[in-house]
Structures are given as structure tokens and as C-alpha cells.
Amino acid sequence: MTDDTTASSDGRPVSGHSRRRFLGTALGAAGVAVAGGAGFGVARATEPDGASSAEQQPIVPFYGKHQAGIATPAQDRLAFAAFDITSFDVQAVQTLLGSWAAAAAQLTKGLPVGAVETLPERPPIDTGEALGLGASNLTITVGFGPSMFDDRFGLQAKRPAALADLPPLPGDALQKERSGGDLCVQACSDDPTVAFHVIRNFARLARGSAVLRWSQLGFGRTSSTSDKQQTERNLLGFKDGTNNIKTEYPAELDTYVWVGDDTDQPWMTGGSYLVARRIRMLIESWDTDFLADQEIVIGRYKNSGAPLTGKHEFDAVNLQAKRRGKYVIDQNAHIRLASPETNNGQKILRRGYSYTDGIDSETGLLDAGLFFIAYQQDPRKQFVPIQTRLGTSDLLNEYIRHTSSALFAVPPGLSEAGDWWGKSLFR
């Protein structure tokens, strides 16, 4: 396929001229058909089985000042994917982002990508596995990696300073094939099929313009992002993210998460920066460790989640407390090194999930752990120094390995139908 072609939603090549028409119609008002007969934003002509009950399921608004899926109360399931752009045509990239936005507006309402009915001699517009399931609080969040700002699309001058490549960090054992990417898509839902359905259909819409670089499924959220949620446990058995930033505190979101008007790139105002890290846990080794030692490593009691200086989960952490001349919370305990008190007051919004990917063929051990996701205003001031401290001396390092890493600029939310991710970036 030449650089001047992309693919319609049914996977057929679309010429440069047709692609421009595809972009214009895909972003138009609801009910407009796009090239190849694929409809985006169209109403269903007939109701699939189970549609009535699906429509009663909870829906997170798609349009807004910020992208949903950041401060939104964390859902139970994750499907995350990074894409490499294969086209050198900037209009093909815009078409891709436009078609994704139009599809996302449908999917987050619990609707299929396009019309259910298709001609029998053509592939269906929607892959169909989520029909009737509803949205289940689905959110779709899209970001741009540093590599998107090379010389392919004339965007070099639009790269934010905060999107600087992450430096090598202590303890990294990164796999290149699981790291980086031009684009990312984070789909979160309370239904695993609904989340996976997004990645599958976005990959299909991207044919001819972008390909999947890597993906990760996650289950069992490991951080609460709302006061209404209890703190969940990670695969080490400890409550994770007790003192996370919560959606009920907008001042903290403004201070630590959302990009403000002082940004060097106005197209990022209202956006955020996403860091994703696949952290493998050596759980077989962890499971042989004494309970008391596990609690020293983390700095919290395993059962209650309380800090070792308190009795209840949300008791304030007292890093100065000593017993018999020694710090109650070890100087290299995880919660001490991750605390804002030891990181110049900096915080990040955590939104991670547990994962399991079967067995490591080399060791015969479980390949499982934490898919860490964090949102912040500037990774250079937040994630990098925090992770440098952790990677250098965290007691937990004996039991974990960072196997993948990625950074993305997540632009602000979309305003209405016809808007798309990065629209102001390409002006």
C-alpha cells in the first residue's frame, strides 16, 4: 500500500482524495455516511438483542474539558494499546484520529462503531462482540508519544518540553518491543469485553495508517481515584494507592495533573501526561517472605492497610516516628520513598491495574504484576525524580522488574461532534 492510501473501516484501501472526504464526513453531524459506506455516529436501524438493558447501563460523558479516563472513578478493567503510525501522509493521520473520535463517541454510549446492518457481501462495520453489553462506564483516552513529533508530519516545533524522552532509570529491564509508541489508547470499563472491543476496532480503523506496537490487558484496579471507592489490593496483597489524588479534590488535579495556561504548547492546555510502566512482580519469591518483612518493605500493615505508625488505613503517615532509636517506617520503605514529603511535595495520579500474562517460558514462573499508569502535569518534575528515588533504594526492588515504559502527551477533551484528538495540534 502506498503512502497516499489508507483504509476505510472495512479494511479497503482509500485514495488520498477519498481519505480527505472520509475525514470530513467522519467528523460531521450524526447520520452522515463515510467513504466505503461505513457509518460513524449513525443511529442503529434495528436494536440488537439485549439493547434495552444495555442502554440502562452507566455512561461516562465523552465530551468535556478534559479527557475521561483520567480523573474518572477507576473502572474494573483495562485494555491499553500503543500504535506506530505507518503512513507518511499527515492527512491520513488526521483521518485516523477523526475516525477514532467518531467511533469513540458511539462506543462510550454503548453503541456499535457504526450501523449494525451491513451488506452481506461486505465485512461488518463493527466486530460485534460487545453488542448488547452497553458501555459499562467505558472511557477512551488517547495520547501522543514523543516519536510522533519527529520529521514525518512537520510537528517538531509543537512538541512540548514536558514530553522529553524518559531517561534511563535505575533498575530498568525494559523490553523494546513493549515500550514506546506514536499513539496510545487507554480503554477502561467495568466489562472486559467492552474494553477489548475498543482496541480491536481502533486497530481495524487504523489499517493502512497505523499498526499495533504492543498492548496490555489489566484487571482489578490497583488505585482508587474517588472517595467513593475502596482501596483495592495489588498482587502482593497490599492496598495500593491509599493516598492517591481523588476526583473530589479539583484543586489537587489543577496543581498536579492538568496542564495549565503556562504550558509552552497551548494545544496541551487542559491535557495531562501519561506514564505507563509494566512492572513484573516476582510473586513466588515474595510469597516466601515473612509477613513482618513484607510490611517493612511496604511500610504498611498488610491486613488493614494502615501505615506502621498508625492503626487505620487513612491515618497520616508519620515518617519521623522512631522506636528504640530506629525509624518505624524504614528509610528505604516503599511508602517513604514515594511520599510527597520526600519528593519536594510532588504527587501523581495513579491509575494502575494488575495483569497476568501466563508463564515465563524461561523460568516457569508466573508473568504477572502491575501495569502502572500515572497522570501528571510534568513528568520531568514528578514521575522521573520519584521513580529515580524508588529505583535506587526501594526495598521493593528485590521483588519487581520494570519491563516496559512509555510516555504520552494526552491532549484536552473533545468539545463536540466534529472535534478530534489533536485537532489544534495540526493547525
Structure overview:
The chain has 427 residues and is α+β, with helices and mostly antiparallel strands. It is built from nine helices and 13 strands. A hairpin with a 5-residue loop joins strand 1 and strand 2. Helix content is 19%, strand content 19%. Mean pLDDT is 88; it is low at 1-46. It has helices spanning 16-26, 51-55, 90-107, 192-205, 250-256, 283-286, 291-298, 334-338, 383-393; strands at residues 6-7, 13-14, 77-85, 139-144, 183-189, 210-221, 272-281, 322-323, 326-327, 349-350, 353-359, 366-376, 400-410. It has one domain (63-96, 137-427). The strands form three sheets. Strands 3, 4, 5, 6, 7, 10, 11, 12 and 13 form a nine-stranded antiparallel beta sheet that branches. Helix 1 packs parallel to helix 3 (90-107).
Question: What brief labels describe this structure?
Answer:
427 residues; alpha+beta; nine-stranded antiparallel β-sheet; two-stranded antiparallel ribbon; 19% strand; globular
Topology:
Elements: E1 6-7, E2 13-14, H1 16-26, H2 51-55, E3 77-85, H3 90-107, E4 139-144, E5 183-189, H4 192-205, E6 210-221, H5 250-256, E7 272-281, H6 283-286, H7 291-298, E8 322-323, E9 326-327, H8 334-338, E10 349-350, E11 353-359, E12 366-376, H9 383-393, E13 400-410
Antiparallel strand pairs: 1-2, 3-5, 3-6, 4-5, 6-11, 7-12, 7-13, 8-9, 10-12, 11-12
Helix pairs in contact: 1-3
